[in-house]
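Q: Convert this sequence to structure tokens.
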Amino acid sequence: MSDSEAAVPNSDDASAVNQLLRLGGPPEEGLDYAGLGISLEAVPELIRMATDPALNDGPADSPLVWAPVHAWRALGQLRAAGAVEPLLTLLRRTDAEQDDWVATDLPVALGQIGGAAVGPVANYLADTAQGEWARTVAAETLGKIGEAHPEWRAECVARLQAQLEKFGEQSEALNAFLILPLYDLLAVEAMPLIERAFASGRVDESVVGDVEDVQIHFGLKAEREHPLKPNSLTDLSRRIAAMEEEIEALKQENAELQFLQDELRSELPPQPYLAPPKTGRNEPCPCGSGKKYKKCCGA
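A:
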């Protein structure tokens, strides 16, 4: 049995889904999966493909490894409410496998599904038994739902705020990633809570900046009133800037040395041409053949 046959059972709906095993990746943005003949009837097979461990953990150079991404994108386009809970099981891969595609692409697909995803995603976010990075992806997913479905924005903001209220019990990173979707949703109504979280010192400022950055983004301030405090991101930026300055200085120094070298060469008197020594016809051939020159290269 082939990998394709093992991944997707033989059925009427599977015939359309099987195409996703051959598409490879990275997936094309905006690909219309309905145009490939994939409909709501294929949802069970798409869920099976999206969550298949053999496909998700397949060889990086195989087109099969991209099939789950195509499957969850198709489920997002179909707004398949029944896929929400199965797709949430993939979030653990952000902690266990450092799966960047789950972290960055799956929230968009779940966001397309819309309101049916809000409750399950918020419950996942609140579950302290889940990995921290998986929970940050759940927070981002609520933001994506609010962006894609404005009618659900207020509910998504409320769910994010409910979790951020626990800032004293949570890590600085999780608190920052709860603020990030509120920042993206321009949730000015959440500003009093955000200010309290920052004031507690329980927010990683390398994620979304400090409280003044958020206030300026929300239009509550025109400009900074205090200098930005150093954090891991600003420290990294300074080190990168220092390295870039050093590289530029070395390039400049090299250019100056090259200029001086060219100047010195131009001032040297012309050198006489020295013809290479001639080989006598009866002398050994310089090619090393052991023959006389006249019997070898000089023939």
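Residues 1-10 have pLDDT under 50 and may be disordered.
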